[in-house]
Amino acid sequence: MNTIKQFPYEQVLVLGLAKSGAAAARILLENGKKVRVNDFKKEEENQAAQELRHFGIEVITGGHPLSVLDDVEVVIKNPGIPYDNVIVKEAIHRNIPVITEIELAGLLTDGPIVGITGSNGKTTTTTLIYEMLRSSGEKAKLSGNIGTVASEVARDSDPDDILVMELSSFQLLGIQTFKANISVLLNIFEAHLDYHKTMSHYANAKAKIFENQTEDDYAVYNLDDERVVELADRTNARKVPFSVTRPCKDGVWFDGDTVYFKDEPIIKRNEIVLVGDHNFENILAAIAASRLMGATPEAIRNVLTTFQGVRHRMQFVREFENRTFYNDSKATNILATSSALNAFKQPIILLAGGLDRGNDFDELIPYLDNVKSMVLFGQTAEKIKNTANQAGIHDVKIVDNVEQAVQHAYAQSESGDVVLLSPACASWDQYRSFEERGDMFVRAVHKL
């Protein structure tokens, strides 16, 4: 078990629990730090808080009194807690550093880190890099926003383990010294503005993945995204571009037939089984990062000729009576759903809806040509229905939940149709997570 190195704080407030907060509190206690935990959820309903109190950690629940900051030297905040939270604002006012749990991960491992961020495609790219490294015989471990707490994985890692981390803007905004040996920035699109407030703040949060890199590191970036190119200019690392549209002999590129890493042919496009133009960009990024980290061309080809996607991200569920069902529950914004719709030439029945963040859905209209009907649910159902009507789609049904949506979509489907769950919205109005929403879809499909 690894110990924290170069962490100059003795008294720590962990603000917000969930998986990352609970993990950070336990790790800090193991390292001899004095830990206080503050979580808004009441302790009688808060199993994590009860367990931490059992370990001897000071636990304050049911609210956010400013006194939780007394004698505190640093705050480790749950990534989802915004910076206008009363405790976060007061900590900043008192000049107390506010960091996130991935900062601990960087202090717990001596092994290399591959960090992946972007508005869309993070999970697919992270998983591809992991699979390519594992297929090459490397000791890779998944961590970060993909579902496994980064600091826990780092604590239990060996020096030759490669930590492949999916990193959100929320996590990156709270780093001080964290550094990826290979950083990957996939794309920048409008997202999470309820949290970051402006597009500039959001882009700057993503760019922090480059912040501590040196000339001994690599920065993999999307040459086809102007915002990404601008942000990549900030790095001191060696830049490795990827492009679908133009040759880049110092990175990964596509000549219309074959994908190359520099001058080395890797795979022909028609051999890749993962569908979608957006996924093709993810694939190029994964080839760059994994090849730089030592993956072999043979291993990369092996993964790309077999990998069909991750759960909840353009996940093929089944074919039933010549209808094909895809679970894209992780499509929590308009861009992700647009990319999913663009992946198919067949008629689509689209299942969509969810949390209302105040935006409209007009940007979907250019991608609805193949959509023959929609089944909608959640807070945004009426908004998306209005968008559908503007696009000339009048076969629209509003239902209570995803299970009903599957039943209705199947009942109205025809041979050759794609039934696609791609909500274009977060899930929190009805479900605890996009995973729970996607799992309901999968179960409903298998019940048909």
UniProtKB/TrEMBL annotation:
Q: Which Pfam families match?
A: Mur_ligase_C, Mur_ligase_M, MurD-like_N
Amino acids binding ATP: G118, S119, N120, G121, K122, T123, T124
Source lineage: Bacteria, Bacillati, Bacillota, Bacilli, Bacillales
Instruction: List the GO molecular function terms.
Output: ligase activity
Gene that encodes the chain? murD
Instruction: Give the family from UniProt.
Output: Belongs to the MurCDEF family.
Residue ranges constituting the Mur ligase C-terminal domain according to the UniProt record = 312-425
Q: What is its EC number?
A: 6.3.2.9
* Pathway(s): Cell wall biogenesis; peptidoglycan biosynthesis
Q: Where is the signal peptide?
A: none
What's the stated role of this polypeptide? Cell wall formation. Catalyzes the addition of glutamate to the nucleotide precursor UDP-N-acetylmuramoyl-L-alanine (UMA).
Superkingdom of origin: Bacteria
**Does the record bear Cell cycle in its keywords?**
yes
Q: Where in the cell is it found?
A: Cytoplasm
Organism in which the protein naturally occurs: Salinibacillus aidingensis
Sorted keywords for this record are:
ATP-binding, Cell cycle, Cell division, Cell shape, Cell wall biogenesis/degradation, Cytoplasm, Ligase, Nucleotide-binding, Peptidoglycan synthesis
Q: What reaction does this catalyse?
A: UDP-N-acetyl-alpha-D-muramoyl-L-alanine + D-glutamate + ATP = UDP-N-acetyl-alpha-D-muramoyl-L-alanyl-D-glutamate + ADP + phosphate + H(+)
Could you say which enzyme class this protein belongs to?
ligase
The Mur ligase central domain sits at 116-289
Q: Per its record, how is this protein called by name? A: UDP-N-acetylmuramoylalanine--D-glutamate ligase
